[in-house]
Design goal:
Elements: H1 36-127, E1 134-139, E2 145-149, H2 162-178, E3 186-189, H3 197-206, E4 214-217, H4 229-232, E5 238-244, E6 249-255
Parallel strand pairs: 3-4
Antiparallel strand pairs: 1-2, 5-6
């Protein structure tokens, strides 16, 4: 028999080799339970990620809105460029048209100037009292007129007499009327006051040749009764002013 070990002794009973404890042949891994600190850390990380996503989405929207604004600006610039291009083309066309019209006006004006100068000289040569001395009347660039002598010298204005200046002015006005298709009425107030007999006769002969109506105001000294027959066949109506000294007024009376 086996003897039982005594309780409380320091002796360990020896067991037979077959009775010795052995570790299990298969083992299981040990998983510790999750820590509450780990769950808090994951939650914080998720909230931070969501916040960052929101910020990125907001930034993305802002960028998209900015892109849309820029696109609108580009479209406006494109539209503006189209309008500017159309306006530029219209302006260029207008400038070209203006140049063409100006060239046409200059051409017509040059042609008309020639006609006006011819008519001025035709009247002037019939009225002037110096046909052997004066050659012609020239029309200057500013549409002023000057008398040119046979020696091709311009006569200064202060060298012309008062009667010659009136003849020159009448020749210019008559030349303009002869050069237009729509002749305007010509009103002449005492045109013979500074004229000598030669100029008066020439003017009386030139008046009926004008294509327009002439209204002639003259005193009995400017137009003596002896000169009226020269115009009689061309007069449409003849009036006189009769002064009534008692009534202190003038009356118009038709003659003939």
């Amino acid at each position: 028999g086996l003897s039982a070990p005594s309780i409380g002794s320091n002796t360990v009973a020896a067991l037979p080799p077959a009775m010795t404890a052995k570790p299990p042949t298969s083992s299981l891994s040990y998983i510790s339970p999750p820590s509450p600190f780990g769950r808090t850390k994951c939650r914080v990380s998720l909230e931070y990620a969501n916040t960052r996503i929101d910020e990125k989405e907001k930034r993305l929207r802002e960028v998209g809105e900015k892109i849309e604004r820029k696109n609108r600006e580009v479209n406006q610039l494109v539209l503006g460029n189209k309008e500017l291009t159309a306006l530029t083309q219209t302006l260029n066309l207008a400038m070209q048209s203006e140049k063409a019209v100006a060239a046409l006006v200059d051409t017509l004006l040059d042609e008309r100037r020639k006609t006006i100068v011819e008519n001025i000289n035709r009247v002037f040569r019939n009225v002037t009292n110096k046909p052997q001395e004066y050659d012609r009347v020239d029309l200057m660039d500013d549409w002023g007129v000057c008398v040119v002598t046979k020696n091709d010298t311009i006569v200064p204005d202060d060298a012309l007499s008062a009667g010659e200046k009136e003849v020159l002015a009448f020749s210019f006005i008559a030349g303009l009327n002869l050069s237009t298709d729509r002749a305007a009425p010509l009103l002449m107030d005492t045109p013979f006051g500074h004229l000598d007999n030669r100029h008066r006769r020439g003017l009386l002969e030139a008046l009926p040749t004008l294509p327009n109506q002439v209204i002639l105001l003259a005193t009995d000294r400017d137009l003596p009764d002896d000169d009226i027959p020269r115009l009689q066949s061309h007069l449409h109506r003849h009036f006189e002013l009769i002064r009534d000294q008692q009534a202190e007024k003038s009356n118009i009376q038709e003659v003939g």
